[in-house]
Design brief:
The chain is mostly helical and 394 residues long. It folds into two domains: 12-192, MFS general substrate transporter like domains (Growth Hormone, Chain: A, Up-down Bundle); 209-394, Up-down Bundle (Growth Hormone, Chain: A). The chain has helices spanning 15-34, 38-44, 49-76, 79-96, 103-131, 137-165, 168-186, 213-239, 245-270, 276-292, 296-323, 330-359, 362-393. Helix 8 runs antiparallel to helix 11 (296-323) and helix 11 runs antiparallel to helix 12 (330-359). It starts with 14 loop residues before the first helix and ends with a helix. The relative contact order is 0.14.
């Protein structure tokens, strides 16, 4: 009996997919370079810690509010229009930072930056989804996410180095120049055309894609933990006199990169059940280690566990959100997914700020562990409910 020939795998690395990954790398690098330097700039303008929190927080919430509109525009105006517009707004806003004479103007321009970020990141994820074969979506989204993870590994340290050697106006122009590189690459991508006549509108208040809610809600409880880490881990380690916080984010990013390809392939073959519980368990372990945190070695182990867990779970949840949505609602599905991403980080930072002030920094990571446990229980509930629905139909 002759062996049946296996069908060749559909190609992921097309010209357009390479371009969107490169563009994503440059815009994320420009963004990541500003993350640790914006607080320094606010201090330079005469601001205090409270103002730093406001300037950082307003960006997240402006991006969050604009994502649903970006999702609608992706289906009606086209992928290219939304992506290029978002990149242009990002470039202009970041390039202006160093020339702003007051915190009030910086606050306003951060709102504008959030609009550009919300549009561009929602669009780029949708464009990548369009370009990846459905049978390899988990793997492809892993590769796409890797472009942002490399920027995460390089950006914060590079930003601090440059900000220490250059004036802020020159520094922010360099960050804007990286966004401009993304914009120029975006002009060479062949985009899926919008077909407004075929798009079923859902009325004025179309702010989310229902089919993407389950993975998005699960993501929310996970990204709450990131709000606590990004905002307060440096203060926590300083309080405990533990050195090496600058290495935490590097180890975290490297661990993220390690997981991207194999986790995506596992998702494609076995589904989200094979990756979600193991990934969230690693995140839970990382939070427990941060509660304990006796020395730098434990800090680095926590970074690796968190990176491995988050790198496994996030692309799987995004692929799950996309595959459950209708083709003409992929833009809104991505908008829903990243809205919950932003919301988790923003709410996590605000709530844990109060928790840390009242009960100490270690309580932040106790709360984070509880949040991870909640998402694990929710996931089990969704599975049981889904299987119960299938049984009833049968």
């Amino acid at each position: 009996m002759e062996k049946q020939l296996e069908r060749p795998k559909e190609k992921i690395w097309t010209r357009d997919f390479v371009l969107i990954c490169l563009a994503n790398f440059f815009i994320f690098l420009g963004f990541q370079m500003t993350l640790p330097t914006i607080p320094l700039f606010v201090k330079d303008l005469g601001g205090n810690d409270q103002l730093i929190g406001l300037v950082i927080g307003i960006f997240t919430f402006s991006a969050l509010l604009l994502r649903p509109y970006a999702g609608n525009a992706l289906e009606t105006k086209g992928r290219g229009f939304v992506y290029i517009l978002g990149l242009a707004i990002f470039v202009l806003s970041v390039g202006s930072f160093g020339f702003l004479p007051s915190i009030v103007l910086l606050f306003m321009m951060r709102v504008v930056q959030g609009v550009g970020w919300g549009f561009s990141t929602t669009a780029s994820g949708t464009i990548a989804t369009d370009l990846i074969p459905a049978t390899r979506r988990g793997e492809g989204m892993g590769y796409y996410g890797l472009s942002g993870n490399v920027a995460l590994a390089l950006g914060p340290s590079l930003g601090l180095i440059l900000a220490g050697k250059l004036s802020f106006d020159v520094f922010f122009l360099i960050c804007a120049g990286l966004g401009l590189a993304a914009l120029l690459l975006s002009l060479r991508i062949s985009y899926k055309k919008a077909e407004p006549k075929q798009v079923k509108t859902k009325g004025k208040h179309d702010f989310y894609e229902k089919s993407a809610l389950k993975p998005s809600v699960l993501l929310f409880f996970i990204t709450v933990t990131f709000g606590g880490i990004a905002s307060f881990l440096p203060l926590y380690t300083a309080q405990k006199e533990i050195e090496g916080i600058q290495w935490y984010f590097l180890y975290y990013a490297v661990a993220l990169m390690v997981t991207r390809a194999f986790a995506g392939q596992l998702y494609d073959r076995k589904g989200h059940q094979a990756v979600f519980i193991p990934g969230t368990f690693l995140i839970l372990l990382a939070m427990i280690l941060l509660v304990w945190l006796p020395n730098s070695l434990v800090l680095y182990i926590a970074a690796c566990l968190y990176g491995l867990g988050f790198g496994t779970v996030q692309p799987a949840l995004q692929a799950w959100a996309i595959e459950k949505s209708p083709i003409n609602r992929r833009g809104m599905a991505n908008a829903t997914f990243f809205s919950f991403f932003d919301l988790g980080i923003g709410i996590g930072a605000m709530i844990f700020g109060q928790v840390g002030h009242m009960f100490g920094y270690s309580s932040i990571y106790i709360g984070s562990a509880i949040s991870v446990f909640i998402t694990m229980m929710l996931y089990v509930y969704f599975l049981v409910k889904e299987k119960g629905g299938v049984t009833k139909q049968g």
